[in-house]
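Weekend entry, working from home. Most of the wet-lab plans are on hold until the incubator is repaired, so I used the time to fold the two sequences that have been sitting in the queue since the last round of cloning. Logging both here for the record. First:
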Amino acid sequence: MPSARLPAARPDASRQRSGTGRTASRDGDWHTVSRSPADTDRIGRLIGRALEGGEVVGLYGALGTGKTALVRGIAAGLGAPPRAVSSPTFVLVHVYAGRLPLAHADLFRIQSETELRHVGLLDYSDTRTATAIEWAERAGAELPDDRLEIHLDHRGRRSRAMTLKAKGARSRRLLARVLSLQATEEAKTGGKRAR
């Protein structure tokens, strides 16, 4: 099984490129580009397969960057039906049943941390449930310190830049599992990705 450790950065460079155009930086961030909705789904499935329960995944990005599509992949990676996943903008939180429960929150309409406390998002946090939060920046101090942040940016009509940042020990372990699954997948496919 491939090592779950991040590639070591060269002392003279802040980032080291992997063989497939993905980059792991010295601080443990993972930079990648999704070239299609299918690629976004594949990355989400890797994250879903790597979840063990209790993790919080915060999604950051403008409208249309693929946050809900990524959560759809995460749900599928957990064994939940991906078609059931929709943006919970009006109900704020959906819970999907899979290998682990996935609480999916969309904070687009949240205006303050006080308002968020009334929603009860933290009521979904336990050691068995994974939580994915769209518009996580609106949660402010209500977000746990240990979380995996995923920043998405437009890179064209179908392409999205993604940066995964592990904030804490649990999230570093999650990111290491994602990278290990990614390496295993690339070894099986010869580095070919969904288009």
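Second, folded right after the first finished:
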Amino acid sequence: MSSAPHSIRATVLQQTERARRCSKAEIERFIEKTEQRIISLESQINALIELRDSQRACVLALKNMASPIHSLPIELLVEIFDLAVEDYWHVENLYCISQVCWDWRQVAQSTPRLWTRPVTIVVSKAGGAADELESLPEVGDATAQWKTWLARSAPLPIHISLVKPRFDYRDINRYILEEGLRVAHRCASLRIDIKGSGTPSWFVRRLAQSKLDSLDELDLGYVQDDDTDRTSVSFTAASRLQKLHLINLGALQIALPWAQLTELRFHCDSPEAFEAFRQCANLIRVYINILQRTPFFEVRQDMPIQFGQLCTLSLHSWTGFPFFFYRLSTPALQELQLHGVRWIPADFTAFQLRAPNITSLELIDSYSCVPRDMKAAICDTPSLTHLTIKDCKESFDDAFISSLCYKDGLTPLVPRLHHLVVDSNVVNFTEDVLASMIMSRWWTETERASYAAPPVARWTYVELRLSMGFRPYQLGARFTEPVKTIPPDVLIYRKDVVY
């Protein structure tokens, strides 16, 4: 080690020389005096360190004040926070933002609109917060997190889902439901999805007694039949309610403002559903799922049903068309989805003639549908642009495919069709027939320019999801070679099979 001005060795030599002729008492006095000097120096050093740290803090504070972020108005900072927060992770993102600095925490936690995105609460007891609010670790358990979120979003309208997953056998945490009732007046949308037991009838009854001035969307799910009080429950005072999802009217009689609804999702198995449906004159979208064979024929069949604004109609039924669908008049209908529905072609045609503006048709799980029925279903939809065929067994065959093929000199079927999705686990067609049909409705930009008005629309999207049972099906060269000029973002099909 090289010597230094204040090395231990030099110091030892210096003090040895100094104390050579000194007594032990004199040496001890030197030690005491030196230690006092050290204490004095340390005190001065500590004072200087404190002064230095204080000056550093002043510099940091001044830099913080001079930084561009602090020249932003609070309103603009809130907009930045709002854009930075992702919908799925909104609670976690806001928690992270609030940890950056005290100022950001104050802005985030005191701005209610940042805390009003939809939130899902699991209503089960114990087990912790199995929902989005577990991202608020600073506020304790699930119920505390739930209460904190409600406080931070106040007084703005909120969107709440109260759920209990399937196979969750824990009891319901009544406190969470009580908190939901306490803020019901702020709910813009309220969804209850309690698997297994269903929505408690006491909750529905007390919810109906709440002030629901903000409620636009209500999903009651399946309501338990456990109420000894058989008096009706009324939601007619919910003046803004437009969207409703309900599974059965059930034994609990529920009065709803049917006439003001614009969207209805109804799972039903009783004739009462028809009477309710008939009252929804202003529907724009309706999704009906008939749960079992329903005695709709007990209701008068000579009663016409007018829906002048209905744009979307989805019917899920394994029992065939309920008779009242044959009596529907839907001149504005654009989207029609039939799931598992069996129909009589003549009656279905009559229905389509009263709905001349259908642009999107989805046929799903129509196992009993034969190719001629499939062709009849699209013959009377001249405005059709989107067609989806899923799990319709053997109805997507050469005859049906050929009917879609454009041929010069012949009036084309569905001339506006440009979007086709076929999802089938049965391959009942010849590959070159399918390729010919697709190519007959495709041309290059040069070919397209040669038409003053193209006779049929050119494909914008074709997707083929094919399998044989549980094994994916790979189309061969008889299909792939003719269609290879079509861009891969327009024609989508399985090009290789992975087992």
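Plan for Monday: verify the second prediction. Residues 361-368+376-499 form one domain.
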